[in-house]
Task: structure prediction
Amino acid sequence: MGPGALRSIGLDETVLLIGTGLTAIDVLLGLRADGHRGQITVVSGHGRWPATHAEQEATYPSFYATELAGLSRVADVLWVIRRHVQRAQQQGISWQAVIDSLRPDLGRIWAAWPRPEQARFLRHVAGIWSVVRHRSPPQNAAAVQEMLDSGLVRLERGRVQAIEPAADGLAVTVRKAQQPTRQLVAQHVITCTGPLLDYRRVQDAVVAGLRTEGHLVPDELGLGIQTDAHGALLTAQGDASAVLFTLGPSRRPVSFESTAVPELRKQAVALAQELGRRLLPNTEIR
Result:
């Protein structure tokens, strides 16, 4: 969404947001700052908003090397984390600190799971993980809760199946498990679920061309692009490209957590160093 895009929305026009993550919170706060008065509907499959940061952020010692390294089952990792959350609470330390202590090692935890376990995590845990891992400042969470309490924002559980033109805006078909579909109408619909990372479905001409020629291989879990540890695209034959590299969310198949600024900064530095070694093999890259 470009700068000022929300200002094209009339103050009394209805809006529907898809997703309840940090992007949705940013949009809600942006609309509020602009003085928007129209009804806002937020559609989410799980109906959870991001957890909030602890008021006083403490630190918790890393337990990856001693208890998590090499664990190949999602259930085993969750059991260890829950035990440390209980231990931290007994010490007056928030659960948020325990989750934050895992941040440097999340990629290694993910990589230790075989593909069926990664798929199991995506089916059963990823939604909750996103809520506790990507948190909101307390003041932002309070502002959203105020909008919910006032009725200005309404939360609808379900998944969007279709969006079609309607006489008075856009008709959004929403489906919730074991319930009949229902149709919501809004004058504006904003997707807040992030970029499309299932590169099997991306129709951009450049992506489609690379995919057809075998230079870009989508991840079978729909998380992004298959790459090596440096971000070089893997070909259909499994070879690492010497010229095609990627950064950011498209590298989620390797590390899963690949969207926040600290992780992106590390990727950029590591890739710059790797390219420097290739282009200037006799030069020390700092």
Q: What stands out?
A: Strands lie at 15-18, 40-44, 153-157, 159-166, 169-175, 182-186, 188-191, 232-234, 240-245.
